[in-house]
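Data card: per-record layout.
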Amino acid sequence: MAWSWSHSGEAYSNAFQNVRNKDRKWLSTVFAEWEAQEGGELNEQKYAVAELKAATLPNDILADYIWGKMEAQSLCSDGGHEAWCCPFGCGPHTVPFDVEAESAEITGANSVHGASQS
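The structure for this 118-residue chain is written out next.
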């Protein structure tokens, strides 16, 4: 279930920065999903063309484009914790409204469901 955005200015600023901090592959994929979305479905031909277009654009332009689409859609996860970045709200293409950790070590990449491994 999706919720509408209803957060503080700081939360929107955090989410925007989290989008701008994403890597090139993530930005290109999300850009292509927006460009290829037709009536809730993904048009594979348009997706392929959009991937080529994304390859010509700098990261900041991709991030700004995605943010504009996100703002217009204004949807987030149930509970309001993760902003939808793509038209479909899939888990890999969301960002938190909190400041995202900058490295995998900080986020616990070596953990399973939040429990540390040794």
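Known properties of this structure: The chain is about 45% helix and 15% strand. Helices lie at 9-20, 24-36, 44-54, 59-73, 104-107.

See the next section for split statistics.
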